[in-house]
Amino acid sequence: ALRADDGKNVKGANTALDALYHFNNPGDMIRPYVSAGFSDQSIDQNGSNGRNRSTFANVGGGAKLYFTENFYARAGVEAQYNIDQGDTEWAPSVGIGVNFGGGSKPAAAPVPAPAEVCSDSDNDGVCDNVDKCPDTPANVTVDADGCPAVAEVVRVELDVKFDFDKSVVKPNSYGDIKNLADFMKQYPSTTTTVEGHTTSRRKTATTWGGDTPTSEGAKADS
What terms describe the molecular function in GO for this protein (predicted)? Predict the structure, then answer.
């Protein structure tokens, strides 16, 4: 309560609702702000009848100084326009405050552990602790053990039939020839050796050779 010039006690209440807009970013130490809102002031003086009420429109600005994430001190000034009487008052203010509510900070993403770099003295891509051939020469293809890769030898037997003294492949051999041709297309870097044999009925002058009628027949069907 306040005491007026005539010695009478003056009691009053002021209720305000303001909205604040902050600048800078959450977590910054200093955050300026602007505010706007309305307030209601009610004054009661002993010895008078009724209460004196006034409604104000408020605009202002200031700054907050944060000591912790939520605890701060505030200083600002506010212009209060008395809607009922048509005059304006200026009200400086200082204070402290605490923010509450809102969500918690998102958890920081875990930092992945740095990939372990192993020692590879011969630079073959296999770590020394599992390299069974640690002195492999450069530019040599190695297997999972770090040793020179051994080419795999695949043996395929084809039973290709020809009529006696003919170069026409019988239809029941087409499938086997096609399978071999597909394999050669799938692995073009492989080396393929084709062998063939004649029967004892063949004449000596026409035994198997590189360009005999039978080999020409196999080429045509593959």
Answer: calcium ion binding
